[in-house]
Amino acid sequence: MNVLALFFVLTLLAVAVRGDDDFDYKPIPDLQDPHVQEIAKFAVTELGKATGERLKYIKTVKGDYLIDDGTNYRLVITILNDQRMADYLAIVLEKPAGHYTLMLGD
């Protein structure tokens, strides 16, 4: 994994994981792409830091993206926390310089 300068804002959202057709998001063709995996793992790591919980990334269930002022990734991520798995919606903005802004909720 490349060393990245990370800038993030973490906001927990009380939203249900659902298929909103807001804006013009397009499906990510390959959820196993190393860059997509890096972004998903970044989201889990930052949530763990913010909550003080020990979280483990399991898989990326669904994902789409929107190119605007950078690239917005909307990912549904399965996370393991104390023997309980749950899906979280993570919205990560990647700026052209490799900076990320994160919003994560369950």
Automatic annotation (TrEMBL):
<keyword id="KW-0646">Protease inhibitor</keyword>
<dbReference type="Pfam" id="PF16845">
    <property type="entry name" value="SQAPI"/>
</dbReference>
<dbReference type="GO" id="GO:0004869">
    <property type="term" value="F:cysteine-type endopeptidase inhibitor activity"/>
</dbReference>
<feature type="domain" description="Cystatin">
    <location>
        <begin position="28"/>
        <end position="101"/>
    </location>
</feature>
<dbReference type="InterPro" id="IPR000010">
    <property type="entry name" value="Cystatin_dom"/>
</dbReference>
<feature type="signal peptide">
    <location>
        <begin position="1"/>
        <end position="19"/>
    </location>
</feature>
<dbReference type="InterPro" id="IPR046350">
    <property type="entry name" value="Cystatin_sf"/>
</dbReference>
<protein>
    <recommendedName>
        <fullName>Cystatin domain-containing protein</fullName>
    </recommendedName>
</protein>
<keyword id="KW-0732">Signal</keyword>
<keyword id="KW-0789">Thiol protease inhibitor</keyword>
